[in-house]
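Loading example: each entry is read as two labelled lines plus one structure line.
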Amino acid sequence: MSTVRYFLKNIDKIVDYTIEHIALISVAMALALVIWITTGILIRNREKLAGNLLGVASIIMSIPSISIYGILVTVPGFGLSRKSAVLALVLYAMLPIVRNVYIALNEVDDGIIEAARGMGMPERQILWKVQLPLAFPVIFAGIRVAMVMMVGIATLSVYIGERNLGRLIQQGITRTHMDMVLTGGLLVAALAIIVDGVMALIQKKLISPGLHLSE
Amino acid sequence: MIELKNISKYYKGMERPAVSKLDLHIEKGEICVFVGPSGCGKTTTMKMINRIIEPSDGEIFIDGKNAMDLDPDKLRVDIGYVIQKIGLFPHFTVYENIAVVPRLKGWKEEKIKHRVTELLEVVGLDPQENMHKYPNQLSGGQKQRVGVARAMAVNPPVMLMDEPFGAVDPITRTQLQNEFLNLQKKIKKTICFVTHDIDEAIKMGDKIAIMCDGQLVQYDTPENILFNPANEFVEEFVGSDRALKVLNLLKIDSIVENKLPTIIVGTDSEEIKKLYEARKQFVVVLEKNGKLRGYIDVRKLVDKKNTEKWEQYIKNYQTQISEDATFKDAMVEMLQNDVKTIPVLDDDKKYIGIVNFDMIKSHVGEEYETNVEEE
């Protein structure tokens, strides 16, 4: 009950934090999509480069988020700013997005590509009208994973000055204010679940019905 | 129509060229089948025509134009392409799949819709029912029909077909082959067809190009390939049952004869007696419009004095066959129905004549004799 009371009493602050939380991951995701999808497309026919890049992405993924924030803060031009928070999230999104774009584009049936080429489709059109739509379900799955991950990792950016839902957890722990911790924890969890659910809905809407049928 | 001049394809690290100095001329409106064991270069040769594979050397002329001078994408738009994997786009409907090349050519949507409807009818699919389906909702045979329709979308004069019927079951394959041959009679495309199946080659080809190790071993009509194989390789590739394959090649319209007397229903019974006096026995009975009704045994009728109401004693033929059936089809009918004579009908189901076992036997024998003498 006391948690509910805390929640209601601080509703304004919590709304602000939630908006900040969503704003951060939105900016990070927008950047991540542009950068990593482009990267995935560019490396699609370069097996060796792709291997190296995905290796780097796995290393980044395995670095604990708190230490990435720590490292970024020391980088000139980043420091204790939103830039660092965004960059960290973008880096974490690298593996799921680049890997899924690369794999999905390479898994498109050769026969389909050959037919497209044989019909005189220009390479650019083959990419946009054939390969990407066919790779889309797998690419989107990667984006969804990245998105949900970002909701969680964003909470830690409070250590470098972000004011989002993570702050409730961090300050609650410092002050041993359990209602505050619980509110923060539950809200972050709820946000992750909602984000995942919304992504699932979008996925259904965007994928060609012809591809649903093959599942 | 399609002219390959001294075409070669080399790959790095390979001992011999995939295709070596190949010269070939495909006449307009003909089906040329490339056939040979795997690795013989047949697919490579075909794919060089639309430059999916770039030739290392040599020239290709399509309708007099040098294909090497054209932009590959522009070249391909005017060459229909059907592959074994079919390669329909699963995220496109049947309509959108067929519309790909028309859209590349900038056709108006109304014209495309008209064309798609027409093409689906041509390949035997109900347009309304199938136009908005996705490929995964179609059977293997239906997909292949859509693949063929898609290749013909802008009515290209040339079509390349890479084992187009390889991925379907034998029954569907035979059906698709027959339908395609019927279609080809009307559309008269210049077709380059690749298969590893010599029977399919003999059935589909106006000309057959037998390849081995990147070289053209023999380029000739199916008849000549069967009767005069150029060397041991061809002889072996064609198989020891060449005589049987001939049966699959020769059409019965070449031997059908109007050997038996005919009579039209409603004819006066006096005619029956005349036939009897002329020492005839079996007489074919036709409807007034020339269609087959059955046959009568004149001797029996006269013996039993049944000539007055002779129409009551007409017997049906157990089987009949169309004039474009092969010798093999005819023999299968004969064996299965235990008969020696089969009536032959034309496309409008009108009676033309009969074939019997002896006619087939003597014809095949003659063909062999003449061809052996030529050698």
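Residues 2-207 of chain A form a domain with the MetI-like fold fold (CATH 1.10.3720.10).
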